[in-house]
Fold Sugar diacid utilization regulator.
Amino acid sequence: MNISKQLARNIVKNLKDVLKQEINFIDTEGIIIASTDEERIRTLHEGAKIVLDTKKEVFISEDGQFKGTKRGINAPVYFEQHIIGIIGLTGGKEVKKYAEILKKMTEILIKEAYLKDFTFQLRERHRLTIESLLFPFSHFDSPHLIELDFSSPYYVVVGQLPDNQELYQEQITPLLELLERVFSYYSQALFTVHRQQIIILVNRISRALLISLLDKVQTNFDKSYQLQLNFGIGSLCYTEQETPQSFLHAQHACEWITFHQSVNEIRFFEDLDLGILLPAIPSGQRSLYVKRILKSLTKEEVHLFKKTLTCFSKNNGSIKKCAEELFIHKNTLQYRLNKLHSLTGYNPRNYDDYLILKLAFLLIQI
């Protein structure tokens, strides 16, 4: 691992804040690449070469003892059992006691930087792989794509906030970290956020366990940000070529959740009934149908009759049960149903007319 000048500067700054001493970071060529004394940057430090040769700490007792040196302690910095640099602390004999802590702190900072960079690169590979599968014409072949094992079928999952709420950048990184923790057992699980949609690909998982893990994501995200996530799950993919279609199915499942004005819900496309058909109707056709059937109703009446018809349907046409649930008198309910018939020309007590009205009220929300 090569230490960049930027990382070396960050290490020097962080250590300076803690130890309040002059600090140098020296590369494996013996050149100071970061220092609290800017005049020493890009100069040779011969004491560092001794550290590299002996693989031991070297204390320099006086300034100029070796070319480019000042008195102080210099210690090798290891990463994965290889020396990747030398950290130096300027001062008298009193700085010797800081040698081990200086070395350990430097190695911790380097490991943190490595893990951060590794995580960033892995997330980029996830993004490129998912986009190349779901949007096959958007990317050329790349050596950074992850090869997926379709010997076990994949689920494509789409998650989004309800009511067109937006995910902000400061929420996306913690969300990806949450997904990585929750799905840590599944080495073939991939995640990314694409145009306000969370996309997950995962295999070797049961339906029940997938629901459990997504529920955990919903609960934790809601707890952290007071935001509710909905998840739609597409049909199983047995080949790469099936993933774009499964992605569309997952989006349809999400749209159906939004249509029902639900939050923190998880829906499988394969469990949908009308949800398969209605979102696929072109918006122009939906608007035309709704206007044709409900053109005589005001917005307030649309809301009132939709609520009434939903309750009427839920109670299988029972006037008594529906009136009780709506907390109104049976005669009031009868009056509403008659008025709906009068305004639209469709009688909700008649099965064929009921279907026409029900479809109109369903389509008005999509």
